[in-house]
Structure formats: C-alpha cells, structure tokens
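We include the pair:
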Amino acid sequence: MPGSRRLISMRTSIAAVALVMLAALVASCGRETPTDAAFRVTGHAHAGPVCPVQQDPPDPACADKPVAGATLVIVDETGEEVAAIQTDTAGNFGATLPAGNYTLVPQPVDGLLGTAPPQTFTTGRGLAPALDVAYDTGIR
C-alpha cells in the first residue's frame, strides 16, 4: 500500500503540473507578442520665432505658433515610408506603429522657412515617444 500511495501522489502531482501548464497556455492565447504589438508615437509641430525681437521676460504673444496641416512622413530603418500623417489645427499629431526604429521626416510648409529637421525615434515596450517638430518662420 505505501508504494501505491506514492504512485497515486506522483500521478496527482503530474496531473496538477499539466493542468497549470495548460492554464498558462490558454491564458497566453490571443495576447500580442512584443513584435506584433502596436505602439503610439505623438508629437507637436510649432513655428517660431513669431516676433522679430525676443524680450526678457518673454512676451506670451511671441510664443511659437502651432503648425496646422503639416505633412510628416515616417520611414523605417530601410528608408521605406510606413506612414504619412498631418498635424491637426493645434499642431498635434500621432501614429500607431509596430516596435522598431523610425525617422520622422517633416515636409516643407508654405509660408515657413525651410523644413524642420528629421528625427529618429524608437517604439517598443515601455517607449511612448513624444516628438517636438520645430519649423522656422524666418523672422529675425
């Protein structure tokens, strides 16, 4: 009898372990893996200077103005375009991308001098990039 109790106990332990493993497998079904997950990148586009002379203390009327309707192109590490987005009326923008390394390439905007410089950024677990896109008004 003592040997049969040990065998029953061992079978019960193996069944319990199998049940726990099955539960873990079922619980993980449908979850996104980090490579499948989508991550949000946001930002703000603005233009300045607005006034020809900077003052100390700064004049609130001379603060940078939002750039509405700017086209921003996002390319991946290979240089392939993965998104083209536009800023809203407040100069804000956002895109949802898979984990990876990207470059935001601002396009020229009528009435502004030159173009904002490109910016590299990374999306992934724990990374929620907030980009600052600064256009030059040409005012000096």
